[in-house]
Write a structure and sequence with these properties.
10-stranded mixed β-sheet, alpha/beta
Length: about 450
């Protein structure tokens, strides 16, 4: 059940909280109870100490959900973002990596382990080195070694918490099934939040032991939250305090009011331009959909922007005269490509890796006011009023034609407005709401 909420009343008891509220227009999805939450004036959690663990190091160049959430948390709380600790394999293979070396130097206290990032936000380099254990074939044996790793990791985090004088922490785990598995017990946070943003069990590394361990991990969280409806359904199977909290996007770059010159490698004047922007990987994209579009409508120009994997490089797409590969482009270049398309695509293949993901590129397309045709999934139900959803390759042909025929300034404006509701402020406000709704005492 997806509920669009504007001026509805909050019906649960927040323990007489007296805290500021923010304006918010967002979707909110709860999977078991038909209660109504006022998400136009969501209460903030503020002046708290929040510790974040996850799968991505802060120093990784690309952005991530977790880093964006950390920045939003830090607007009203003190936040300590924990880098994933090194393991033996990483130490052996990363001797020339300056970030690995920095980790190692913190162990010898040559450099500070806690590094300020911005107001209220710090990054912590754990000095411990964990054992590389995923090769262990049996999950009970893996769990024994994993608990030892967790104890070392927890001891390092505890040192940082003490150094920062953090109290009554909220521990937020960004999908780290294994390294965070025992941290609720070891660190005793006031609230433990498990955040699911990808279906990790579709990946062999995580599937091996995660099939048994992730459901148990989810079950013991105080609250579980997800950025897609599919993942929220999955969480609900193991923990009744599970919520859909939406996906935030930084759409400043994708501003429909900014006019860009048409890139030189986009064919203009040869027919409608149908485009995709993103990594071209057969694990996530259906090559057959693209082949069907290009072969059935040779008058359309299919432009694919992004680096290719081996399957794409060897595909028959390269033999078709109306298919154009631009190669990898820097992020600031992407809005010009999106703006040049008549219709944008997300030809997602359906498999265990992709079925639960939230495609950020849809918001980027919509923020530019563009018509979008995408593969129908549970998560794409969120977009059904603004995106044409295709179940088959043939559907793509018909829906692209419909998108071209129907497009007008009114529809473009509605797309832009809709994408604008998917902000990190909104998503984090929903996380706050989920935490408060499962609180048995005031935060």
């Amino acid at each position: 059940m997806l509920i669009f909420l504007f001026n509805l009343r909050l019906v649960f008891n927040c323990n007489n909280l007296t805290i500021p509220r923010v304006n918010l227009i967002t979707e909110y999805y709860h999977l078991s109870n038909r209660y109504t939450l006022d998400l136009t004036t969501v209460p903030l959690i503020q002046d708290r100490d929040i510790v974040i663990i996850g799968l991505q190091q802060w120093y990784t160049a690309i952005g991530s959900n977790c880093k964006s959430i950390a920045r939003e948390f830090a607007r009203h709380n003190r936040v300590l973002y924990i880098n994933a600790p090194l393991d033996r394999r990483t130490v052996l293979n990363g001797k020339n990596d300056p970030n690995v070396q920095y980790h190692l130097d913190t162990k010898d206290k040559k450099v500070p382990a806690i590094v300020p990032v911005s107001h209220n936000l710090w990054n912590f380099y754990p000095s411990v080195i964990l054992e590389s254990i995923n090769w262990v074939p049996f999950t009970p044996v893996f769990s024994w070694f994993n608990k030892r790793n967790n104890r070392k990791f927890a001891a390092s985090i505890r040192e940082a918490i003490t150094a920062m004088n953090f109290k009554d922490v909220i521990l937020f785990n960004d999908n780290d099934i294994f390294r965070g598995y025992y941290l609720k017990e070891l660190l005793q946070p006031e609230k433990y939040v498990y955040y699911s943003r990808d279906y990790l069990l579709g990946v062999p590394y995580w599937q091996k032991h995660g099939q048994q361990l992730e459901p148990r991990h989810i079950a013991k969280a105080d609250v579980a939250v997800a950025n897609s409806l599919y993942l929220a359904d999955m969480l609900q199977q193991y923990n009744p305090s599970s919520y859909y909290v939406g996906q935030g996007c930084d759409l400043q770059l994708f501003d429909a009011n900014v006019q860009h010159p048409v890139p030189s490698d986009v064919p203009i004047g040869k027919g409608p331009v149908i485009g995709y922007v993103g990594a071209l990987k057969s694990l996530r994209l259906d090559i057959n959909i693209l082949l069907t579009i290009a072969r059935e409508r040779p008058q359309w120009q299919l432009v694919l922007v992004g680096p290719e994997d081996e399957d794409f490089q060897q595909s028959a797409l390269h033999q078709l005269p109306n298919v154009h590969f631009t190669g990898k482009k820097d992020i600031p270049e992407l809005p010009a490509y999106v703006q040049s398309f008549d219709v944008c695509l997300n030809p997602q293949v359906l498999n265990t890796v992709t079925v639960g993901n939230y495609p950020l590129k849809i918001d980027e397309y919509l923020a530019m006011g563009k018509p979008v045709v995408a593969t129908a999934t549970k998560t794409m139900e969120l977009f059904k009023d603004h995106v044409y959803l295709a179940a088959t390759p043939t559907d793509y042909i018909q829906l692209i034609e419909k998108a071209i025929a129907e497009n007008n300034s009114s529809l473009a404006a509605a797309r832009i407005q809709f994408a604008g509701t998917h902000t990190w402020e909104n998503s984090v406000a929903a996380i706050y709401q989920a935490i408060l709704n499962t609180s048995d005492r005031s935060l």
